[in-house]
Every structure is written in structure tokens, then in C-alpha cells.
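Q: Here's a chain of 270 amino acids. Please give me its 3D structure as C-alpha cells.
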Amino acid sequence: MGRRSSALLVVVTLVGFVAFTWPLFTHPHGSENLAHSTDAPWLFVIVLPLLLAIVLSELADGTLDSKAVAVLGVLAACGAAVRLPSGGVTGFAPIFFLLLPAGRVYGRGFGFVLGALTMFASALLTGGVGPWLPYEMFGMAWVGFFAGCLPRASGRAEITLLGVYGFVAGLAYGLLLNLWFWPFAVSGDNATAFVAGAPLGENLRRFLAFDIATSLGFDLPRAVTNLVLVVVMGRPVLVVLRRAARRASFGIRPTFGGPADVAAVPPAPA
């Protein structure tokens, strides 16, 4: 990744971190349905131009070209279409499957943008647009980003590495998405409620208890789905993506010669 795209990724990540965590340091008021209803539109206004800026900076730095952008659009559309049959019922979410090998093959910046665009497109298709959407986009973007950060491996070791990461990412995504509404939704005198003004460690302990009690039953099927799909279909998908990258010659810039170069080319035989 180039310096500009890396700097933009840092900025977007900081925006996402602040968006998820600011309620932990304030006295939030509202309910689950109204959580972030005022700041989520502004988050869209900030995030979408930053995603476009990342793509443009990758193009300017030469780490992406027009063919890679075309692949980005195709994979985002395919990922959104894969979500349609499931709708996330009982945690089954095959939307992660293409994101994992794509982030692995095409890198961190590609994986970040692909995750955000896939979730955005799938929300438009399924009618899942709401104040939760920018947080889902951040979660998916980070899943794609860290898929590109995995260490080098090949053969069975690579499939095992990607499958284990998919399992962990499925659990981490659910845990993270709970954080966007938990300070607003849970109240009262119980072990899973957010307590405004309490020490951060105490609230994090309560948050983990909330996740285990309410969300783990949905997160485990998502994690297992990721693992199974990677083990069963990961190798052929990785092969196809790498073949597409080689044939498209991503990252190779065309060069154009002058008249002297043209004259130096021998004429074709008659």
C-alpha cells in the first residue's frame, strides 16, 4: 500500500473506533431503535468519501488499476447477492466467504474497501438501511483488512490459516456489532447493563456478559459457516482470484514508445 492510502486507512479506522466507543465515555440516552440515529447520517457523510479517496489513492500509487477496480465491483456485487438467500437467519452469513480470500489475495486496502462496499450493496438489496449500517460496514471492512494482513502460507497451511481466521472473524464481528447499540439498549440493575460513569473495565465485563448471553448463539453459526466454506471451497476460489490477478496483470503499468521504438520493430514477413 502507498503512503496516502495507508494514511487514509488510519483516518477511517480512527473514525470507526470513535464511532463505536464514544458512548462508553458519556451518558447515552435513547433505545436500541434510536441508537446513533443522529450521528449515523454524519458517519455516512464522512466514510463514503474516505472510501472513494482510498480507491483513488490506490490508483494514483499504482497498487490498483482499472481492472482491479472492476474486480472490486464484481466481488462486491457477488457478495451482496450471496447474502440474499440467507438474510442472516440463525447467524448463517455466507457474505463473509468471498471477502476472506479476496482480502487474502488482493491485499489490505482492497479487502477494507470490498468489505464496506459489500455490506453497503447488500443493505440496499435487502432493505437493511438504518443507523446500524455504517457500523456493519466498518465491521466488514476490518474483516477484509485483516484477511490481507495474514502471514504468508501455502497449500493446506494457507487454508487452515484462512479458516481459523474466518472462525475468529465471525465471532469478533458479532461482538463488535453489539457494541454499537449496547449502551443504549440495556438498562436497569442487571449484570449485562451499561452503567454510565462506571470504570471502563467494569463496563467491558458487563458487555462480554451481554454478548455471551444474547449473541453468541448467532455468532457461532456465522463462525462455523466461515470455517466450513473456506475448508470446502477456499482453495478453488483462491486459485481463481490469483489467476484473475495474473491475467489482468494488476500493478503493471503500460509503457508507450516513441517513433524510434516503432521504427526499430522489424516488419512482418509478407
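Q: Can you summarize the key feature?
A: The mean pLDDT is 82.
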